[in-house]
Design brief:
The chain has helices at residues 21-31, 43-55, 71-85, 112-135, 161-181, 207-217, 226-237, and strands at residues 9-13, 35-40, 62-65, 90-93, 143-149, 186-193, 248-251. With 259 residues, it is α/β, with parallel strands linked by helices. The structure holds Kalimantacin (KAL).
Length: 259
């Protein structure tokens, strides 16, 4: 048993740019010898993702669109993947969205549409993808599904608001999916990363304060990096984590244990 992912294939959903956590995961998996397939949301992202994918040491890069709000498109994307590679060994789901105006002030002001949108993109999308993976028998040799969560789903974090409620739903989904897919030797886990400067965090009120508090209070007294999250994903994808499912691993310099 080792960390090598030589001969294995993984789908990475949610790379936006080189600061993305999904990109940190991609680099860790690629260094371990994995073949990677990327999906992106919307044409705006395509060029970035292709450029990044091409920069990896891969024989051939597969980059596909996947609008996570559209079940037909999810099915088509994963059917394309199946046609091309036959089966996959794992999937990294690094997708979240909420309307910016609902990530500030009172959670009480969340609209029905904003609530549904945040839950559809940030939580249901994992279930939708897992469902298609099973329908297509895409992880027929077993596999590992990893999603990204955040402390704001476990407790109150200022301004996280509807995203916190969506992450709580995602965390619960991880457990139920782990239960459903365990019989097929598919493990489902979440990584709860500390705050990292990514495109999705950009321009969100109070983010700098969160970073500062983390540096002051976390047991390791520092922030965490995309690479550290990537290496934890690598562990979860590897056989070393074969006994772990339905779990959330905090990669946050210990911050969640304080206070
Ligand atoms: C307490 C924290 C401070 C920030 C509060 C809320 C963060 C929410 C994350 C959520 C995913 C951000 C958005 O959906 C932003 C979106 O409205 C506008 N941005 C975009 O559309 C960009 C271009 C694209 C790439 O972004 C997305 N998401 O598609 C939470 C911090 C400390 C930790 C974080 C950032 C957690 C997290 O969930 O990302």
């Amino acid at each position: 048993m080792n960390l090598s992912l030589e001969g294995k294939t993984y789908v990475i959903m949610g790379v936006a740019n080189k600061r993305s956590i999904a990109w940190g995961i991609s680099q860790s998996l690629s260094k371990a010898g994995a073949t990677l397939i990327f999906t992106y949301a919307g044409e705006r992202m395509e060029k970035n993702v292709r450029q990044l994918a091409d920069s990896l040491d891969q024989e051939e890069t597969m980059v596909l669109p996947c609008d996570i709000t559209d079940d037909n498109e999810i099915e088509k994307t994963f059917q394309d993947i199946k046609d091309k590679v036959g089966h996959i060994d794992g999937l990294a789901h690094c997708i979240a969205f909420a309307n910016k105006e609902e990530l500030d002030g009172d959670y009480l002001n969340t609209t029905r549409d904003g609530f549904m949108l945040a839950h559809s993109i940030s939580s249901y999308s994992l279930t939708a993808v897992a469902k298609v993976i099973r329908e297509l028998d895409l992880m027929k040799e077993g596999g590992s599904i990893v999603t990204m969560t955040y402390l704001g789903g476990e407790r109150i974090v200022k301004n996280y608001n509807v995203m916190g409620v969506a992450k709580a739903s995602l965390d619960a989904s991880v457990q139920y999916l782990a239960n459903d897919l365990g019989k097929d030797s598919i493990r489902v886990n979440a990584i709860s990363a500390g705050p990292i400067r990514t495109l999705s965090a950009k321009g969100i009120g109070g983010f700098n304060d969160v970073l500062q508090e983390m540096e002051e209070k976390a047991p390791l007294n520092r922030l965490v990096t995309q690479e550290e999250v990537g290496d934890t994903a690598l562990f979860l994808m590897s056989d070393l984590a074969r006994g772990i499912t339905g779990e959330t691993i905090h990669v946050d310099a210990g911050y969640n244990k304080v206070g």
